[in-house]
Amino acid sequence: MGKYIGESVLRKEDPRMVTGEAKYLDDIKIPGMLYAVVKRSDYAHAKIKNIDTSEATKMPGVLGVWTGKDFEDVNPMPCAWQAGGITNNANTPRVLEIDKVTFTGQGIAVVVAEDRNLAEDACSKINVEYEELPVVVSAEDAIKPGAPQLHENAPNNICMEWECGNEDGTDKALSNSDVVVKEQLVNQRLIPNSMEPRGAIAEYKSATEEFTVWLTSQAPHVHRLLATAFVFGIPETKMRVIAPHVGGGFGCKIFLYPEYCLVIALAKKIGRPIKWMETRSENFQATTHGRDHSTQIQVGASNDGTITSLKVNTVANLGGTLSTIAPGIPTTLYGRLLSGTYKFPNIYCGVKGVYTNTGMVDAYRGAGRPEATYVVERALDLVANKLGMDVVDVRKKNFIQKDQFPYTPADGITKGLEYDSGDYEKPLNKALEMFNYTQFREEQKKSRSEGKYLGVGFSTYIEACGVAPSAWVGVGGEGWGAGLWESANIRVHLTGKVVVTTGSSPHGQGTETTMAQIAADELGLPFDDVDVQYNDTLGTPFGYGTYGSRSAAVGGTAVFNAVQKVKQKALRIGAHMLEASADDVVYEDGKVSVKGSPDQAKTIQEIAGAAALGYSLPEGDEPFLDETAYFDPPNTTWPFGTHICVVEIEEETGSVKVKKYLAVDDVGNVVNPMVVDGQIHGGIAQGVAQALWESGEYNESGELMSGSLIDYAIPRTDCLPNLELDRTVTPSPTNPLGVKGVGETGTIASTPAVVNAVIDALAPFGVTNLNMPLTSQKIWNVIQKKGG
Amino acid sequence: MKISMKVNGVDYENDIEPRTLLVQYLRETLDLTGTNIGCDTSQCGACTIHVNGEAVKSCTMLAVQADGATITTIEGLANDGELHPVQKAFCENHGLQCGYCTPGMIMASVDMLKNNPNPTEEEIRHGLEGNFCRCTGYHNIVKSVKAAAVSMKGGA
Ligand code: FES
Ligand code: FES
């Protein structure tokens, strides 16, 4: 490839972030700005009988106190991804709830004051009278007869029932299998905890009826669309949404939250700019959570380890109300991934999406795919265990072979999508070379005799990135209420400097750098001559934003395609300047030259200058090099790889130490290896954390027990080992860059590798399954019960 | 209440409410917004600065407690436009992604390296355990600090 693609170019983003110059939402101050603080429900399920705001209103510095009744004219938040082809009993939050709350921490009133402290003081003086209702927090309990009912339109608390695959065929195959393993797998609730919590600032200009809104957002165009067209019923053009520097998202900043719209509504009501910034405690309660599946699996296999059938029944907890794309996560992004890297001939997946009195559950890094990978990779180990076979042998036996691509999984579970490209043994073999498996098994045996418990776990996963095409995922298909293409505009200014604008909305992924690499290489210009602008609906083409590991494969390709258009025009203008025919010139290394006479050339800077001046252009051409491309991929991309985790368990305490973590990922071509590895590191940390430490826990009355960084154990520096990474490269045929996407890979792959390792270590105690998180207490109990 | 302190080499004197946290004073009164806030339980370390040369979580202190102190924040770390070796090392080793934890992480690292100019990997991991990062998995943060230690020795 070129000079920059494939190189670890240092990030354009970093200098402003290491100096404190980067402005995050809470760093923005607007003259006259007020502060909003939200009063949140103290109960998980209750009727709101009365809200007494009189004392709060009289507090110093208070501009006013409002409740849900003051916003009856504001529509509820939209649910923009309802599971495709079926009825979804949707219930979404309002800016402030009016009559009833369905989880602790829902907004019910708001104070606006001159400063944050005064607003908080006043908020504590709001008196709410509730009528408590019975509470249900587990999704399995919520669908039992007699359970408390949350919403009138959702009998038995069921939002939707979705399925894919062939149930009869799978049942038949199960009954004909030599062995069948049944297990209950719990994928516990996680709380994303981007280090920057959520916030919003809104300003309203009454003369023009225009809003400017700053949001902690992964998708400013989507936020604008949903807020204007669905919540407020105003023209999209009357709102500008800016995502300033965003301090991480991991999914939780995709969604249109009630507080965002509340601040917008208040800015108009009061006529002054308003900021709202949540505290970490509020973030725990009111920002979306992830995962929370309870799953029954049945996996059938022949005695030789060939898997014949996989049946999966999942109850997915969606929380008290639906977040923006909640129903799409445990359906499309989960069920359609259940063939993993394996040629399972029979598959069925049934999902119930359920309301409970808990915080909203939506996409969290990986979103559905980690849950699917967990099921598949645990299933492989369960079968190996049952048959007394090696876990690597069982994987190899069931792998889709490299000559089978493009591969369509059985029973239509991908609904027509095919795996684009793959060679699953390659990363596995590479990882085994790096690891020395045979030697490990010997060490393991030896260490057991010394009272030490070592275990190894594998995850030979697949995932899906840049989910597409729009027609497949959209309303007529999977139910996503929009498209999933991405946009890019390229302008080559008179000076030869390039501005790329993109509808992607990076917030830590380094996309500013990788897109500049793509544009610089393709144009043949220095990297520093390319500026990438994003995160503002003013000045960027409409785009869907950054999530689902889509910014390289979809957004990056839009950049690539826009550059091709620029080059086409540059060829015409260059030929005109060289007095040659457009068929006789070529574009190479930033120059248009006459074929065979490289000396007769015009640089892209000269051409850009001529195009910008417009003094002499080819017949029919307009001035300026300015092109936009919208890329709708023909398929999702399908990265894969092998993760190996080695753990050691201390018998006396049950504590797990990750001794070694090794990952060989195949994410297609790599634009910036440093950035790609960084994504994998971060993803692995979150996946390991799910396996061992993190869990969003509610007590029976619906109070969040893991509601702070003290009680919810995100990994610290000293929790993780050094990570060993390598890669294989199987380009994706779905885009000209051959990239697949990497943002979620680490999270998707790692969790089952760690759990498989712990179960392997505990084999002497007869353990075949344990549910996450595998805390020392849980393991200690197991050792006490079964050991000795 | 009147307080005075020297922040990044500049003397300030302000009248503030006694309950103002040091981090609030820096961010809201002095508009030094490079120091971030990531939690309300003194866990995350995003707000780490130097007070009289020692790393401190600035959300754990009232501004009045820092009356008379000399303070350095991330904005004051570079010298005449020349990045501090730790800042440089974070850029060169991809020690940051979203950058939200980064000011605190860098301030904590600078302090750690002052007390232990030649830390082992374990000492780095232990030394930074009060600073959370959700993006990097810490791998490249550790690498950055190691690289900074080497370059600072070379420079000294
Ligand atoms: S803001 Fe989290 S420790 Fe200070
Ligand atoms: S870089 Fe995002 S939290 Fe550390």
Can you give a write-up of this model?
The complex is a heterodimer of chains A (788) and B (156). Chain A is of the alpha+beta class and 788 residues long. Chain A has 3 domains: 15-133 and 195-248 and 253-286, Aldehyde Oxidoreductase, domain 3 (Alpha-Beta Complex); 383-467 and 635-786, Aldehyde oxidase/xanthine dehydrogenase, molybdopterin binding domain (Aldehyde Oxidoreductase, domain 4, 2-Layer Sandwich), CATH 3.30.365.10; 485-631, Aldehyde oxidase/xanthine dehydrogenase, molybdopterin binding domain (Aldehyde Oxidoreductase, domain 4). Chain A has 20 helices and 26 strands. Chain A has a 7-stranded mixed beta sheet with strand order 3-5-1-12-9-10-11, with helices on both faces. In chain A, strands 7-15-14-13-8 form a 5-stranded mixed beta sheet. The longest helix of chain A is centred in the C-terminal third of the chain and has 27 residues, at 551-577. Chain B folds into 2 domains: 2-76, Roll (Ubiquitin-like (UB roll)); 85-152, [2Fe-2S]-binding domain (DNA polymerase, domain 1, Orthogonal Bundle), CATH 1.10.150.120. Helix content of chain B is 35%, strand content 15%. Chain B has helices spanning 22-29, 85-92, 102-115, 121-127, 139-155; strands at 2-7, 10-15, 48-51, 54-57, 70-72. Chain B has a 5-stranded mixed beta sheet with strand order 2-1-5-3-4, covered by helices on one side. Classes of the chains: A alpha+beta (788), B alpha+beta (156). Chains A and B meet through helix 1 and helix 18 of A and helix 2, helix 3, helix 4 and helix 5 of B. One FE2/S2 (inorganic) cluster binds at residues 37-39, 42-47, 57, 59 of chain B.
